[in-house]
Amino acid sequence: MLVESLIKETVELQGFRVATVEQTGKGLEAELMSDERYVPRCGRCGGRALYRDTRSTRRFRHVPLWGIDVYLIYAPRRVVCKHCGGVHVELLPWVSGKRQFTRALMVALATWARVLTWEQVAGLFHCSWSTVATAVDEAVAYGLAHRDLSEVSHIGIDEISRKRGHVYVTNVYDLNSRRLLWSGEGRTKETLEGFFDWFGEQHTERLEGVCCDMWQPYADVVKARAPKAVLVFDKFHIVQHLTKAVDQVRRDEIREKGQTHKELMTKTRYIWLKNPWNLTDKQRGRLGELEQLNLKINRAYLLKEAFREFWSYSCPGWAIRYLDKWFWWATHSRLQPMRDFAWMLRRHQKDLLNYFKMPISNGIVEGLNNKAKVKSCPIQDEHGARGVSRAR
Asked: According to the model, what pLDDT value does residue 364 have?
């Protein structure tokens, strides 16, 4: 296959043709010419236009071929458009606006940027870091403009810490397609209001379920802006609150009983927090020894394991009966962290029980959150939507 044929396969060239391909010190340079069989198109509206004059020659970076840099050389024409009026540069189907790289290279850079750092992608394609950043911006802008939101019926709202400290980013996901819909700085009411402003009333009307943690600003906004949707508190965040309460009991008991007890409890934290089936043989044996000592942490551990049964019910009526029983156990356990957790559930009981009407959770997007924590921070587009990943 000739190099000219390879270029035709990877570049949209309707209305143009490859005149020559030469190898220079910079790589392969393919000179393009207009095809006289086609009328030029206006670069602004895409309509048929009349030729006026020719601008100076431009170079467009293309996808490397076998490690050899490839450039497209073309002198754009200016046309007079009768549809939108005025004189504009003709439509070049292989490039966006005044970019110096082709759409095919943009897609290649943006695709590799999903799995590698931007510095590595820049080295792989022999370009600068800023070129990769521009390609990602371009790809995301295209995706935001062309994505279909009509099928979004269940969304998950979660926040991540973008930097060290309390610098939060609110992410909204489509739970059905497992994709990021929107991202905004902060975790306030105003932040989530920004999502619903962007999402629009028409799409919000189609929402059937919204899953989030028990952060009150989120709950207030969801109930106000999407009253027809079922608000479900995320199961995994609730379990996370429970494990934190158990760990706090362990810490308090160590502090109360002093150094001797601290030595006894050394390297036991994850024994109390892990699921029983994930314990190693050594941890299982250690747990059996500790259960004989009538420790406070053991009572907290038993409450944690007993709460697991709450999620097994399919009927809300039976679930609330069990929750009432567990609430009594926790509030009479003489363990303050467990009492606090129980009262938190009581305050949010109505929305907590919505899980049994619509069993959705944010568990499926935790992997996306982890990726975002490692190598991304949000960038805002012109409409206020955020969804670009920038490598640190």
From this structure: 73
3-state secondary structure of 34: strand
Q: Which residues in the chain come in under a pLDDT of 50?
A: 1, 375-392
Sheet strands side by side (includes 77-81):
49-54, 77-81, 87-89
Give the position of tokens 């590698």: 116
Helix (H) or strand (E) run with residue 151 in it:
none
User: How many angstroms separate the CA atoms of 299 and 333, rounded?
Assistant: 8
pLDDT in tens, 372-392: 555 444 433 333 444 433 333
Inter-axis angle of helices 235-257 and 296-307, nearest 10: 170
* Phi, psi values for residue 97, rounded to 5°: 60, -130
Q: Answer whether 15's CB lies under 8 Å from 8's CB.
A: no
What are 29's two structure tokens? 């340079």
Q: Which residues of 185-220 are buried (b: 16+ CB within 10 A; e: fewer)?
A: bebbeebbebbbebbeeebbeebebbbbbbbebbbe
Place of tokens 């934290």: 269
Cβ-proximal residues to 21 (8 Å cutoff; 6+ apart), any chain: 3, 4, 7, 28, 29, 30, 31
pLDDT in the model for residue 62: 82
Whose tokens are 């160590």? That residue is 254
Residue 382 structure tokens: 């012109």
Q: Which two tokens stand for residue 243?
A: 């494990």
- Composition of the chain by helix, strand, coil, percent to 5: 45, 20, 30
Backbone dihedral angles phi then psi of residue 101, each to the nearest 5 degrees? -135, 155
3-state secondary structure of 91: coil
What are 346-364's pLDDT values in tens digits?
999 988 999 998 998 887 7
Predicted confidence at residue 378, as pLDDT, reads 41
CA distance 223 to 157: 13
